[in-house]
Design brief:
The complex is a heterodimer. Chain A contains no helices and eleven strands. The N and C termini of chain A lie far apart (about 40 Å). The radius of gyration of chain A is 13 Å and the shape is globular. By secondary structure, chain A is mainly β. Chain B is mainly β. Chain B contains no helices and eleven strands. In chain B, a hairpin with a 2-residue loop joins strand 5 (about 45-50) and strand 6 (about 55). Chain B is globular, with a radius of gyration of 13 Å. The mean pLDDT of chain B is about 95. The interface of A and B includes residues 88, 90 and 95 of A.
């Protein structure tokens, strides 16, 4: 099984502070990882894909194979970033997939 | 472009009954994945269908089964419902790596 773990259930920061949401993975092959976000009363939606190297809404995530991590980072948190964040493996190709439990990010004014 | 839709929105069933949940994939998407999300948990992968064939399965018993139709819409069937089956069931469609999620069906088993 391909498993990701998110050690923090809740993360609370002040507006303008840096934020890092942790994700670690255990994979038997090459990992394909994503960050999904769920804002209040909205659907789950893709935020970042590990190979895109894009910055979406100021967030970035680097795949660190040595540390088996895929942490999500933003230098200056905004109140609108408050949401539930999930680290997730790619679905398909007969893979058994274990999502993270999610981290609830609260950005306080 | 129509997004992913799921029906019904909410459902209450009794232990031992059977249930069918439905998902209409986004236009142009040939892959549908189903997830179970219990309260306070992350989505747990149930299975995926690609062009009407099962393409992967998580750790769920055989009483969880599915179908995908030629128009790529899908059904999730659960037989012999148990109390622990109470959860939000999410459907996601895709034609590449990005999954587009539906709003979910809230199933309560009493």
């Amino acid at each position: 099984a391909q498993r990701v773990t998110q050690p923090e259930k809740l993360l609370s920061v002040f507006k303008g502070a840096p934020v890092e949401l942790k994700c670690n993975y255990s994979y038997s092959g090459s990992p394909e990882l994503f960050w999904y976000v769920q804002y209040s009363r909205q659907r789950l939606q893709l935020l970042l894909r590990h190979i895109s190297r894009e910055s979406i809404k100021g967030f970035t995530a680097d795949l660190n194979k040595g540390e088996t991590s895929f942490h999500l980072k933003k230098p200056f948190a905004q109140e609108e970033d408050s949401a539930m964040y999930y680290c997730a493996p790619y679905a398909g190709n007969n893979r058994k997939l274990i999502w993270g439990l999610g981290t609830s990010l609260a950005v306080n004014p | 472009e129509t997004g992913v839709t799921q029906s019904p929105t909410h459902l209450i069933k009794t232990r031992g009954q059977q249930v069918t949940l439905r998902c209409s994939s986004q236009s142009g998407h040939n892959t549908v994945s189903w997830y179970q999300q219990a309260l306070g948990q992350g989505p747990q992968f149930i299975f995926q269908y690609y062009r009407e064939e099962e393409n992967g399965r998580g750790n769920f018993p055989p009483r969880f089964s599915g179908l995908q139709f030629p128009n790529y819409s899908s059904e999730l069937n659960v037989n012999a419902l148990e109390l622990d089956d109470s959860a939000l069931y999410l459907c996601a469609s895709s034609n590449s790596y990005e999954q587009y999620f539906g709003p979910g069906t809230r199933l309560t088993v009493t």
